[in-house]
Every structure is written in C-alpha cells, then in structure tokens.
Specification:
The chain has 3 helices and no strands. It is mostly helical and about 80 residues long. The chain has 2 domains: about 30 residues; about 30 residues. The protein starts with a helix and ends with a helix.
Length: about 80
C-alpha cells in the first residue's frame, strides 16, 4: 500500500509540474524513511513457502494424478478382469 501512496504523490507532482505550479527539481523527491514503521530486512522463506505449488499447479497435479490412476485402473481391469 505504501508504494501506491508514493506513486500517487509522484503522479500529483508530475501533474503540478505540467501545469507549471511546481519546479522541475521538486518533481523527483526522495521519500524519508519512516521512523514509525522502519523497513524490515529480507524475508527468509521456509521450505514449504519456497516449493509449495500455486492453486493452479495444485489443481493441475490433482487432475493429472486422477487421470493417471483412472487409466491404470482401466488397464488392469481390461487385462486382468476377464476370466
């Protein structure tokens, strides 16, 4: 959310510059670091977070597993089902 606010402020400064109400050197401002919410260090992802599939990947793996199991069951039924 913080990036959205900064982007909106930068867009407003660019509009004010285009209208001639702001000097060119005031358009690109470096935002000071917040003392109330200091930036955190890099996040170390756990093993589960690194290798967990997305929802689409999870559903695709389930579909492939189901189709494989059904085809193996059909093969065994056709081969060994007859007496």
């Amino acid at each position: 959310m913080n990036g959205a606010v900064q982007s909106g402020e930068r867009a407003a400064r660019e509009v004010l510059f285009a209208l001639g109400r702001l000097a060119a050197d005031q358009v690109d401002q470096i935002e000071p670091t917040s003392s109330e919410y200091p930036p955190e260090g890099p996040h170390d992802a756990s093993l589960l977070e690194q290798f967990a599939p997305s929802a689409r990947g999870f559903l695709l793996a389930g579909l492939i597993s189901t189709l494989t199991a059904a085809s193996l069951a059909a093969c065994f039924a056709l081969r060994y089902g007859r007496t």
